[in-house]
Each structure stands twice: as C-alpha cells, then as structure tokens.
Amino acid sequence: MAPTPKPTPNPNQTYHTPSRTPNPRQRLQFPTPKAGCGTHNLSSVPTEHPVEVIGRIRDHPDSKERNHNPLIEIPPDGQSIKVRTDIGYRDFTLDGVSVSENENLEVFYNKFVKSRVEGVRVGSKCTIMMYGPTGSGKSHTMFGCAREPGIVYRALKDILGDGTHEQGDPVGEEADETGFKLGIFVRVAVLEIYNEEIYDLLSANLNAGAGNGIAKGNSQKTRLEIIGKKAKNPTYLSGNEAGKISREVAKVEKRRIVRSTLCNERSSRSHCMIILDVPSVGGRLMLVDMAGSENIEAAGQTGFEAKMQTAKINQGNIALKRVVESIANGDSHVPFRDSKLTMLLQDSFLDDKSKILMILCASPDPREMHKTISTLEYGAKAKCIVRAAHPATPKPTSQSNAESVTLLASQIALMNQHICELQRDKQALLKERDQALKSLSLNEDELAVVRFEVKRMEEKVLRQDNEIESLKNRLREFECGGREVVSFGHVTSRLAEMVGDDQNMVKSMELDYSDQVSSGFVDVKEVKEDTSVASWACNLLPTIEEEASEARNLHLHLLPTIFEAEESEEVEKEVVQEERRDEMVPVTEADRQTRIENIFRLCGNYRELAKKDDNKGHIQKYGDENAEPSPLSAKSQLVAALAGSPIKVKSVSPLCPKEAKWGEMEGGLDVYVKWEVSKESSGSMITKLTVPKDSTLSRLRLVLEAHFNEKNNNQDFVFLLLKDPMGAPVAKEMEAEMQVTNLPKCSNKIDGYLASLRPLKNGVHRPIHLPLSPLENKLGSPLVST
Ligand SMILES: Nc1ncnc2c1ncn2[C@@H]1O[C@H](COP(=O)(O)OP(=O)(O)OP(=O)(O)O)[C@@H](O)[C@H]1O
Question: Where is the Kinesin motor domain (predicted)?
C-alpha cells in the first residue's frame, strides 16, 4: 500500500499528542506522484477503502488574526489536525491535510485530486465531495475564483488534455487542443439539489435559446425526476474542448441559489453536482459542492421559508452523515433514500469501482471552531468506512472442475427428487380435488331434489289453502242463503234414497223432517229398529272419510262431499224444503258452528255411537236426564245432527256397560270420554266424568288412568283436539297447559265436553295421514308427535 504523500513540514507548526481518531481497518493511500509527469501509479491504489478524507483549512477570514494564537495545528506528518479546545487538544487523523495559506488550489489539486481525476480518464469512477460549514471555502475550492480555477475546471483540463491556464479563462485553450488530439470526449451534466428537488441547470441554459449554450441568468430551471439512483434525462454538455465546457459550467454555476447569511455573504443554499462521464472508457467523475452544514440559528435565518430552506439543506447533509455512519458501522440498511443527494450518491458508495474523496473544509477562525470540530469528527467517521475486499477468483483447475461437476450433479439429483415429490403431492391433491368436486356435485343433485320437493309441497299446500277457502265460502253462502236445510235435507234425502235402495233395509222407516227441523228436536215416529241403517251410515261415512284422506283434514274433505251431493242431485231439491224456508229459525253463527261440529262429530263419533246401538234399535236421547231411552235409529240421529237438532244426552249408560260415577263432583265440568274411531277401533264411549272447572288435560288423564286401572285396562292414549282441523293429538307434555275447556263441546245444547282418546300402541301414535309428502314427514313435521 502506497503511503500518503506527506506534506513538507512547516517549521512554524507545533506537534502534539498522537491521533485519537479511530484507525480504519484499511485506509486508502494516495499513489506516489511520479516526478515530472504529474501522473500516479493507479495500479497501486488499494480498492478496499472507498472513502478518502482530506482536510482543507481555508485562509483566516481576518488577516489580522492570522498566526495569532491559532487553535488549529497541523502536525508535520500532514495527515492529522490538532484542535485546541477548552479541555485540551483533539487530534483528527485524515488521509491528508492542506492549509490554503501554504498550498493554493493548484498545489492542493495536484497533491490530492489530480490522481483521482486521471483515474477517471482511464475508466475509474470517483466522487469528490466538498463538506463543511458555510463559509468554510467549499465553493471556493470546487470552483475557484478569478485568480485560480477550482477543482472542476482543473479536472476538465486534466481529462481533456493538459494545458496552461489563461487569465480570465478557467482553463486554457491548450487543453482543448490536447483533448482533441487525444480523442477524448466527455459528457457533463450540472444538477442542483434544492429543497429536496433536483434541477437541471444546463437545461435552463439550453432552453434559454442561447444556441451556444451560454446560460441566461433568469432562465427557469427544469426540475428532474429521479429514477432509481439517477436523475431522469438530464441535459448534457458534450464535447472534447475543456475551455468551452468549463465556460458553460462556470456560467450555469452562477445560477445556483445563494443567499446572504451571517456566515457567508453569498452562501450556497443548494447542493451542486457536476457529473462528468468519459463514455469511451466508462469513467465517471462526480463533483459535489454541498451547501453549508450550519444550523439554522448559526446561519441567522429568520422567517419560515428561510428556516425551511436551511432545514432542507440540512436534510441532505444529515442524510449523508447517516449514510456514512451506517456504512462505517456495517449496518445492514443504509438510508440512501433519506434524501435526493444520498440517492444520487448511492452508486458512489456501493459501486466497487467507485472511490470517494471527501474534502473537509474548515475555517481557522476560533469562532467557527465548534463547526470545525464537528466537520472533522464527521470526516474521521467517514474514514472508517471499509468495503469488504473481494476474494480473488480462483482459477479453475481440472480437479476443481471435476468437483464442481460432482457437486452440481448431486444437486441436480436432489432437485429431481424434490420435483418428483412435488409431482406426487400434486397428483394427490388433484385426486382429492376431483373427489371433492364429485361430492359437491352429488350434494347439489340432492339439494335440487329437495328443492323440487319443497316447491311441490308448497304448491300443494297453496292449492289446499285455496280449496279450504273456497269450501268455506261455499259453506258460508250456502248457510247464509238459508239453504242449509235444503242441503242437509238433500243429503238426508239422498241417504234415504240410498237406504231405500238397500234391499236389506226396512222400507217402512220414515222420517218426519218437518217436525225435526221445525221443532228443533228429533222426533222419531215409529221408526223400526234397523241396525242396517246404522251400519250403512257407519259404512258410508268412512267412505267419505277415505275420500277425504288425501286432504289435509277430515273437515275439509267431508264438506265437498256434502256439496257434491247437493249439486249432483238436482232432482232432490224438493219443493217441500223450499216452502219451509219461512218457517226456519234464524241461524246464528254459534248454531252454525255447532252444526258443523256436529257433522264432524257424527262422522267421527256419532256414527259409531249409532253403530254401537246395542243391537236393540234404541239409543239414548241426550239432554233429557229423566227421559226414557227412546228408540232412535242411527239414520235418525244422523239426520237430526245434520239438521242441527240438539241432541240431549244425560247419561251414557246405554252406551257404557255401567254408568261412570267415578270422578263426578258438584259444579264440575262434564266430560264425555270416548275412543277415536279408526280401522282398529269402533270409537266406543268410555265414560262420563265430572272434573273441576279449571282442570287440565293432565288432571283429566290422572282421573282416566285411575279409571282404566279400575277396569284393569292399561291402555295408553293421547287426547285429540277435535276442534283442530287435523284432530291433532295433544302432546303429553302439553296436557298440563291445556284446559279441559279446550276440548270440543258436545253441542250447544249439551253442556259437556267431548274427550276423544287415541289409543297408543307401545306408547306410539298410530300413523296418521298427513297431507305432506313422505319427504316432509322425514323432515320432521311438527304435526307428528314422536
Ligand atoms: N482558501 C480561501 N482563500 C481565500 N478566500 C477564501 C478561501 N476559502 C473561502 N474563501 C472566501 O470565503 C468566502 C466563502 O467561501 P465559500 O463560498 O467557498 O464558502 P462555502 O463553504 O461554499 O459557503 P456556503 O456553504 O455558504 O456556500 C468566499 O468569498 C470565498 O472567496
């Protein structure tokens, strides 16, 4: 590693304690300049250390104070700075230190910069940054002054050709000729970063229409976007004439935003970046003149805009500081994107071929000493940045090739095995998916069937509802028109006719309908006992019931049968009935309900009652306790019931072997208990009970079960609510909540309730016909008690 060129020791300078600045792990060294030619041995430049830090101490602003008790001392090694503070000296070791009083710009350039620039000429990449507080001489070093050109112009001259400098011209014309002779061609962009925006200073110049690229002071700048790490489409100055390019750069540089501050009369408020490419060799030189890193108070900025401006300037400086610290610390994340400046400088830090020359500008003014120290601390940190050295690429040998081939082959085998496993997994997953799809399809089919059934069921229920409504209307019209007598008489006439056709029946049986209807009581005239009539009635009604079995309930399907009888038998509309309309007693709603209930009760119960007419042709006439049992044929009872005649029942003794006295009580409710009629059961009366008025069915059950026990009959049962359209069984658990008064009344003439019991086999209801489909039954109709 070549040593950093040591400056000539100044006998006037004093030397103090050794450096306390942390030593970098690898430090860049300047190549030893070859005498005479001014070039350096670039091959000796180490590549591991990307940042080189040079201190540049400007002239003292006050010439009177020069050499008067200086706070900054430069040791003779020329690589460190000693700063005297209140608590002692602080040493900062850098890669080089230059004092402008001793070394003008030319010397400084030749000593520390020239070698880098010449490296760019042959393809290297270098970034030269001016860092320091405001007024410390950054711009002066970068651009120079009228007396001496700065780094920018000298670099252009060095790249495009060696030459001498003419007075008033940044670079001599000779440089242009040299560059032309060498065939080197450069491309230059000049950017300004102000308020975190990138402006193209050359674009303003060219858009001004100068033709020759001369900048116009008031031309508007063009803002550039940033893509990745580069400004998008900047304007370039291209050429091989250093003089022309330098002049144009000098002009556009004057367009930088400056402001007078306490620290600097013409303080740069923006960062300026000059990007010089040498396309033929891929070299790149980035020259960055940063705005002052002063704080707002020190700059004496007042007003919101000025403070914001200073804050934005500091944003770039602070971001750059963080980038340097992150890299030096070896952090995994470097905050390049914290500012536009660091975004554009990203390649400078990361590109292996790129080097950074950081020139720390400082003032010897004791009043600026804290800024000087801060700047030097920053430079010392930057010096610690180490880029990992790239391991030398071993030359492949035949042995290593064989090993590589073996290694790759094993890796390929592993990968193939992994691929096979993945393919197997894929096949399994595909199979699983197919099965799931199949199952889903089946479920969808089932769902479609269920939906179809539900739809069909709904349609059926709707039809039945319509039918019910229609029947109710017909019945209402029928009764309101006073035709009930006709209807009932019609039916009874039909019954009589049918009975008359029955050879087994006694023809002499007569019914005085007029008396029955007009008196309101069944008046039986020498009706011969005819069990065949009762049998017929019992046989006929189940037939009706069977016809209605397709309907929802017995009521709904019995009624049309009656109406059909009326419609089909027009001949039977006897005048006799018509003539007696005037004699009819007005039918109240209660009577109508009672009659309807009587009809169903007869169909379900009374017919059996007639059938069980003890084969003697006698039947107890209800309602008259003292009356002797009157012989009454089933036909007569049926007709009486159909005609709305009150049936008086006091005792069921004719129906029951023995009158039930058990359970009777004063002031209670009379309950007539019978079995439901079914194919298996004839629907016989069981008993008559008297229970308290507020008795529930559960209480009635207790009484009945006691009664059954007395009879040695353990038949289980459920109550039927005959008022319910379905004659629905009452669930046992509901019996406690249901009053006996909910049971149907025998009739409006008989003060008693009718308890119809449905026998249970093994505690299970016998199947009842439901209007719903089997599917609906499966779904659990609430009508089915399990
Ligand atoms: N080495 C020097 N010799 C003579 N004059 C100098 C030197 N350095 C700086 N100056 C003068 O000091 C003034 C401020 O310098 P300059 O503008 O370069 O500072 P700066 O660091 O760029 O400040 P800012 O950050 O505010 O732009 C200028 O007038 C400049 O000519």
Answer: 50-385
